[in-house]
Amino acid sequence: MKRLIQSALVSLMVLLFAAPAICGGRLVIYCSNEPFACQAVADRFAEKYDVKVQMTRSGSGSTYAKILAEKDNPKGDVWYAGTLDPHSQAGVNDLLEIYESPMLIEIGKPFQNPATSKKHHTAGVYAGVLGYSVNTDLLKEKNLPMPRSWADLTKPEYKGLIQMASPQSSGTAYTALATLVQLWGEDAAFEYLAKLHQNIGQYTKSGSAPGKAAARGETMIGIGFLHDHALQKVNGFPLELIVPSEGTGYEIGGLSIIKGARNLDNAKLFIDFMLSKEGQEVPQEVKMFQVPTNINANVPKEAIRLDQVNLIDYDFVTYGTEEMRSHLIDRWAKEIKPLQR
């Protein structure tokens, strides 16, 4: 009888662990990574688990707005990637499910439960350093010195030669805004932003757009997360990547289940997959150079490692609250955006 019970238990465990591989069904992913990385992840998950996946890509600020607008009738199941701050805001506003994945044992401790609520609304799926890239061909053509700091970007010789995203639509730009506030204090940061505004040629909607524009020579300097810019450099564009000398912030890429997800079991399975070594290495196959949070995953040689640069102690809890995000973005929209340049 004992052997029969043991055999039955083993059979049950096999069935439980085998079930995800034949789960089937559907999954709707809202993705705030680069489109090709979003597609690679969606395709791999669909193939591995025989799930019909629908993927929509938009920036993290825009995705948060979409989830908020759909809160009474959720259309998405999971939110993959994008800066942590809007994920934090979504968690605090009860727009996300609580899920403590069993895969968290393989995730670095700072990334296991980083969001403001501290209720396992969001896990960290990657990290990336904030900075800017410089088109070296344009720099040489204009006979200008290489900027090395945040302060350098306000020099008059760079007027009209810089792009960054708008914090009203971009989580990347909000991270830059929050970074400057933490570096210097709020009023000093906004004095800096007013000076920087004079040199901005365009505010983009997407956080990755300035790096692409610098790569193509449409602007000389693009502010953003340097893993995005590293891709352009690897593809042969004349870029130098700069981590500002005063220090800089960084992002944690969020991974969340949308509250009211229609495909909750598959949503949990997707979280588990993207926290695994296998899942976090999928974007690397399409040249995404973010730092994985799974301690067993490969770190791309092109990635800028967090322990090798001058990072501020970025306060994800404080700057992920709705009050702080709304306050800083509203102040930027009122005080900086309308300024002539």
Description of the structure:
39% of the residues lie in helices and 18% in strands. Strands 1, 2, 3, 4, 5, 6, 7, 8, 9 and 10 form a 10-stranded mixed β-sheet that branches. The protein has 2 domains: 2-127 and 251-300, 3-Layer(aba) Sandwich (D-Maltodextrin-Binding Protein, domain 2), CATH 3.40.190.10; 129-249 and 323-335, D-Maltodextrin-Binding Protein, domain 2 (3-Layer(aba) Sandwich). The chain is globular, with a radius of gyration of 21 Å. It has helices spanning 2-18, 35-49, 60-69, 84-92, 109-112, 136-141, 171-184, 186-197, 209-216, 226-234, 264-274, 277-281, 322-335; strands spanning 26-31, 52-57, 78-83, 122-135, 162-165, 200-204, 221-225, 239-242, 250-257, 291-292. Helix 7 crosses helix 8 (186-197).
List the helices and strands and how they pair.
Elements (H helix, E strand, L loop, with lengths): L1 H17 L7 E6 L3 H15 L2 E6 L2 H10 L8 E6 H9 L16 H4 L9 E14 H6 L20 E4 L5 H14 L1 H12 L2 E5 L4 H8 L4 E5 H9 L4 E4 L7 E8 L6 H11 L2 H5 L9 E2 L29 H14 L6
Parallel strand pairs: 1-2, 1-3, 5-6, 5-7
Antiparallel strand pairs: 3-9, 4-7, 4-8, 4-9, 4-10
Helix pairs in contact: 3-4, 7-8
